[in-house]
Design a protein that fits this description.
The chain has 184 residues and is mainly alpha-helical. 77% of the residues lie in helices and 5% in strands.
Length: 184
């Protein structure tokens, strides 16, 4: 299926009550993980596990729904526990992350290779490039000064993230998919 077809199919998920409930539940899980399971490592580095819920939304609901979850989660976490001034760039990162997860995982075989590539793409585009740019713009710190520490953090966290992501995608997503498709 081409990209347009994937978006259309994903947008149809918004017409199903089960999909809306699933999107809301995954949003709640992402917010909780963003609040509870978020570990500050330094002034511009934070380890979070909200990606598990966002990647699940991408795999189950696709590229029309997951970006909304990613953006909303950023805003809700900020409203509950702000860690600085609100900056819309981080909301854009949440949106782009959801879009990437949706495009890469929705209606696809969730192989280890696909998960490795998806997480690498998220780490490079969203975590290294976009978030480093937002921190640079927000706090005036030099982009190239921020980049090495953030790259090291992402490099060290990458295998851990994939080790956590793989069982969620291989066990949880198929189970939930069956539940979403079963008759009421």
């Amino acid at each position: 299926m081409n990209a347009k077809g994937v978006f259309v199919q994903s947008a149809r998920e918004l017409k199903r009550v089960r999909s809306l409930v699933m999107a809301a539940m995954l949003l709640a899980v992402q917010v909780v993980l963003g609040l509870v399971a978020s570990i500050p490592v330094g002034p511009s580095i934070r380890i979070s596990f909200g990606y598990l819920a966002l990647s699940t939304a991408g795999a189950l609901l696709g590229p029309a729904v997951a970006p909304v979850n990613g953006a909303l989660a950023d805003v809700i976490v900020f409203l509950i526990r702000p860690t600085g001034p609100y900056f819309p760039g981080f909301t854009i990162t949440g949106l782009v992350s959801g879009l990437i997860y949706g495009l890469m995982l929705y209606q696809r075989d969730l192989t280890l290779t696909r998960l490795l590539a998806t997480k690498l793409l998220i780490d490079v585009v969203c975590n290294l490039l976009l978030n480093t740019l937002w921190i640079h713009m927000l706090y005036g710190k030099a982009f190239l000064v921020l980049l090495p520490g953030r790259a090291l953090k992402n490099l060290l966290q990458y295998p851990v993230d994939v080790l956590l992501l793989y069982p969620v995608m291989k066990k949880v997503v198929p189970l939930v998919r069956r539940q979403m498709l079963s008759p009421v």
